[in-house]
Amino acid sequence: MTVLGIETSCDETAASVVARDEDGRARILSDIVLSQTTEHAAFGGVVPEIAARAHVEALDGVVEAALNDAGLSLDQVDAVAVSAGPGLAGGLLVGLMTAKALAAVAAVPLLPLNHLEGHALTARLTDNVAFPFLLLLVSGGHTQILAVHALGRYERYASTIDDAAGEAFDKVAKLLGLPYPGGPSVEKAATSGDPARFPFPRPLKGEKRPDFSFSGLKTAVRQAAEKAQPLSEQDIADLGASFQAAVADALADRVSRALERFRNAYPDLGEPVLVVAGGVAANETLRGTLTDLCATHHFRFLAPPLRLCGDNAAMIAWAGAERLAAGMLVEDAASFAPRTRW
Ligand code: KG4
Ligand code: ZN
């Protein structure tokens, strides 16, 4: 079966066609991601109004390109899947309305999906990973650890009580005068920095509660930056490196608890899997820390290709294909409304 996927929940306008064979193997037939980074760069972050308008302008062309690349016409797809939340209201509405129209015209099922399910199932799209597995999702909007038990059965082990990890990178970049998006620019600046110069806090390290927190760390970076004014290039590099090390360390501490909990839930799994996804998964320091952590805990560590870690529509098409294959359709999908905080 082939599914057309649409993703407009934040600042990427994306469409993709993914095929699933009878053995549950995936083939990405097309994967178009149009990033709005340049539209938002001048404002130092995503502006919802600008995002919604950019989706309206771009989506039809992006869908057309995805079908063309796949060599298919609309009436050859078996379903249309779309991110219906969580995300920005305007963008979600654009995606959902477009998907409803396409599904109606093609007379195929419409699958309104949770965007996070797309991230959660990416490792099955890329590596055919079997259920259950553990997922660390770290993006600009989300920081969560999920036990992925089965299709549609997700258990949240931890989530953030304030900022998302990527959001912290973006805010720290801003206060260090580095360009948006912040994650890549902080990582770049940090390559020539000393991660031990500023002993930033590791929020909640050692605590039992299943939470992440990054706003205190961000404040600590701001105070250190204010003290060191005027900032030299070396100061910026050291602040970036010290911040990045603190994030990786704090994340690893939370993940190590989750690894234990997951192992207790599935004592018979030979080598359980930890998957990392979301834009922050691109960070080399974080990847290195998680690789070491998994080696110590005898977990297999899996990071999907960077292109599929960030927001994309292939993960939505694939989640749709999994649901369609399992017969998990939503009743009256045509009247499904966006769920911004789903
Ligand atoms: O998953 P994503 O593309 O979009 C969503 O937020 O859903 O993630 C974007 C986030 C941004 O906050 C960006 O700064 C962060 O991922 N990011 C990184 C890196 N690349 C992107 N953070 C740290 N290091 C990176 N190399
Ligand atoms: Zn996302």
Architecture blueprint of SSEs:
Blueprint: E1 2-7, E2 12-20, E3 26-35, H1 37-41, H2 48-70, E4 79-85, H3 89-106, E5 110-114, H4 115-127, E6 133-138, E7 143-150, E8 153-160, H5 165-175, H6 182-190, E9 211-212, H7 215-227, H8 233-265, E10 273-277, H9 284-297, E11 300-302, H10 306-309, H11 314-325
Helix pairs in contact: 2-3, 4-11, 5-6, 5-7, 5-8, 6-8, 7-8, 8-9
Zinc ion is lined by residues 115, 119, 139, 311.
Family: Belongs to the KAE1 / TsaD family.
Pfam families: TsaD (PF00814)
Subcellular location: Cytoplasm
Walk me through the structure.
There is one protein chain. It contains 11 helices and 11 strands. It is α/β, with parallel strands linked by helices. The chain folds into 2 domains: 2-124 and 311-335, ATPase, nucleotide binding domain (Nucleotidyltransferase, domain 5), CATH 3.30.420.40; 140-306, ATPase, nucleotide binding domain (Nucleotidyltransferase, domain 5). Strand 4 (79-85), helix 3 (89-106) and strand 5 (110-114) form a beta-alpha-beta unit. Helix 4 crosses helix 11 and helix 8 packs parallel to helix 9 (284-297). The chain is globular and about 60 Å long. Bound molecules: 5'-O-[(R)-(carboxyoxy)(hydroxy)phosphoryl]adenosine and zinc ion.
